[in-house]
Design a protein that fits this description.
Distance between the termini: 32 Å
Low-confidence stretches: 1-16, 97-102
Radius of gyration: 17 Å
Number of domains: 1
Helix content: 10-25%
Oligomer: single chain
Number of strands: 12
CATH superfamily: Lipid/polyisoprenoid-binding, YceI-like
Number of helices: 2
Order of helices and strands: EEEEEEHEEEEEHE
Mean pLDDT: 85
CATH topology: Lipocalin
Amino acid sequence: MKLLTSTLLILAAPLSFAEWTLSPDSSVKFLSTKNTNITEVHEFTQVSGSVSDQGSAKITIDLSSVETGIEIRNERMQSMLFNVSDYATATVSANLPDTMMLALKNGETATSVLPLTLELHGEKKEVKADILATAAADGHVVVTTQSPILINADDFKLAKGVEALREIAGLDRISTTVPVTFTLLFTETPE
């Protein structure tokens, strides 16, 4: 999940790295599928992050900000799945490679498949993100997923939580693979 957040790696400031801050208008969304054919869209409403002038990128997702559209389901995900009392956040980090140092001019785009480190529920794994970065006319850089990042609950010791949610909701099945997408809006940090 969001994961997410992983496209910091493509932020190439004009002529060189600058420091960038993630805008609150950014979004990290994920899909859940229950009983084989019912899929719903959820999101995290509190995401923060930055890219340092050395190219070190980090995004933090507040797991208690999960929004599913149903309050009791939000509470169950917070306590039974994410266990926010012990694991309040997920983080995505990366180091921007030198090859990403090329300047993006207004309206230009760049694509890349980037390795990210996702820390979630006490586990740390590398995931790949297929991303598109666009330099906006107002100086922002918008980074989006071109295809969903697939996160497997087993990789982050979340399968028991998924099963607990399935049981309490009386469902036949909840998928343990979750597609994650994001739209990240970065602004250059004033010096």
